[in-house]
Fold this protein.
Amino acid sequence: TILKCAAFVVVFSIDSKQSLKEAERYLKEIMNLKEKCPCIIVGNKNDVQIEDREVTFEEALQLAIKYQCAYVDISAKNYNSVTEVFDILTKKIQQFELLEKEEEKRLLKYSKRSLSLKNLFW
């Protein structure tokens, strides 16, 4: 399930506006359950002719910005930029884990300070 996942790759087809809408539905569901998480949106089929493309790069990028995800166009058929997806996702996971550790340290420091202040007044 979504709660058990550490990161997400949401793929849509750039020759289908409907698949972009479905991708956004998945993103909403993910973000409703997990406020922050490493995520990348992937527009597949960048090998199609420009006139067959229903979703522009800019539209896909706007969706990525809205949900604070990375975005990349790929062609699974031609294996174009596929490894880039995993490189980006790996970096996002590492950054996310680092931020989580920093947040834990900050919260621990804050809770220790609160306990010290509490002792002064009791």
Summary: Strands lie at 8-13, 39-44, 70-73.
